[in-house]
Structure formats: structure tokens, C-alpha cells
Write a structure and sequence with these properties.
Length: 205
């Protein structure tokens, strides 16, 4: 189900839709930022806990580049072969890194504000990909029973065997961007990421 309207990082929560999800028996995975409008809608919706998946903004930007290279293309280079040696591509990559960093920082601000509801919990991307059962146990608590665990592990096996195509597949194991952008650009990006985001994600330069 959906609870937001708009495009990705620029979307906003629709309170009526959020109320439907708060009734239970539904799953949603979206990308809206922690804007005042969305936080107000969530606060009124009845949702108790919101899980925010976070990832190193540089890895997330690299993943987006891998999946949608045409986003980073110049007008005369629209093919999927566009690489990060292109100045325009590097500029767009840098901008996306910082936009994703601000997205994480916005959720940190919301989590630290005691007046905000629902409660905000963070889950790190690498923990989802490396140990999905453990991550889901943390999120679902007593609802994660043996029967559900068996289904999760069956899904993981089918995914590994190529029987299932992931709908939200993200590229990379982490750190691949270091091979595609110069140390100077890496330092520029790192310097502009907030200290709170660096601490939450344990980021290194």
C-alpha cells in the first residue's frame, strides 16, 4: 500500500492513507522525507512506530547511478554507458549524495524530537541485506514466529537461487563509489555530510 503522494524524496504523507495502514495487515515501503507536513500527518494517523531504513548516502547514490545511469547523463550522452568521469555526472552524483544525507539528517531530527509521533526507529541497510531474519525479528517482535521465519528463509533461498526478482533491488556491497570519484570529490562530499549522520551510520571519509 501507499501512504504518500509525489515522487520519492519529494513526496508527502497523505493522512487518510496513513490511517488505513495504521489499522494493520498492510505493508508500505516509501521514500518521503521528514517534512513538517508528513510528520504532522503521521502524528495524527495512529501509527505507533515508523521504521526508517538508512544507508551511507554515497552508497545509496552509487546504487541509483547503477540502476538509472541516464539520470546522470549530459544531453549529448543519454546512453547507459555514462560514467562518473563525466563532470556533469560527478556534479549530479555529489548533489544526490548531499540530498540523501539531508534526508537521513531530517529523520534524525524527527527521532530526537520528543513531540513527534510515531516513534522513529532506524534500521541500517547492511543489516537488512546481511541478516534479514534478525532485522525482521527486531522490527516485528512477538509477531515474528516460527512459521513466519520459515517463510522468510524460504524467500531468501529462492532469491539466492534466482527464482525471485527483488522489486526494490539496490546495487553494490558498499564503497564502490571510491573507485569512480576522485579523493578531492570524496573529501568534499564527506565534509558536507552532517556530523549526526556520520555518527548514526559510522561513516568514514
Amino acid at each position: 500500500m501507499r501512504m504518500s503522494l509525489g515522487d520519492g524524496l519529494r513526496s508527502v504523507v497523505v493522512e487518510r492513507w496513513a490511517r488505513q495502514i495504521a489499522r494493520g495487515g498492510a505493508v508500505t515501503h516509501e521514500h518521503y522525507p521528514a517534512s513538517d507536513a508528513s510528520l504532522d500527518a503521521l502524528s495524527r494517523s495512529g501509527i505507533d512506530t515508523l521504521w526508517v531504513q538508512v544507508r551511507d548516502p554515497r552508497d545509496a547514490a552509487y546504487s541509483a547511478w547503477q540502476m538509472r545511469r541516464h539520470w546522470f547523463s549530459t544531453p549529448d550522452r543519454q546512453s547507459a554507458e555514462t560514467d562518473l568521469n563525466d563532470r556533469t555526472a560527478i556534479r549530479k552524483f555529489t548533489e544526490l549524495c548531499l540530498e540523501l544525507s539531508e534526508w537521513v539528517d531530517g529523520w534524525i531530527s524527527a527521532a530526537e524530537n520528543p513531540d513527534h509521533r510515531p516513534r522513529i526507529e532506524f534500521v541500517e541497510y547492511h543489516k537488512v541485506t546481511r541478516d534479514l531474519p534478525c532485522t525482521l525479528k527486531r522490527m516485528l517482535g512477538a509477531h515474528y514466529d516460527d512459521q513466519f521465519d520459515a517463510k522468510v528463509r524460504d524467500h531468501i533461498d529462492r532469491l539466492a537461487g534466482g527464482e525471485v526478482t527483488p522489486r526494490n533491488f539496490r546495487k553494490g556491497e558498499g564503497g564502490e563509489w571510491r573507485n569512480f570519484i576522485s579523493p578531492e570529490v570524496q573529501a568534499e562530499i564527506y565534509g558536507k555530510i552532517s556530523d549526526r549522520t556520520k555518527r548514526l551510520l559510522n561513516l568514514a571519509p
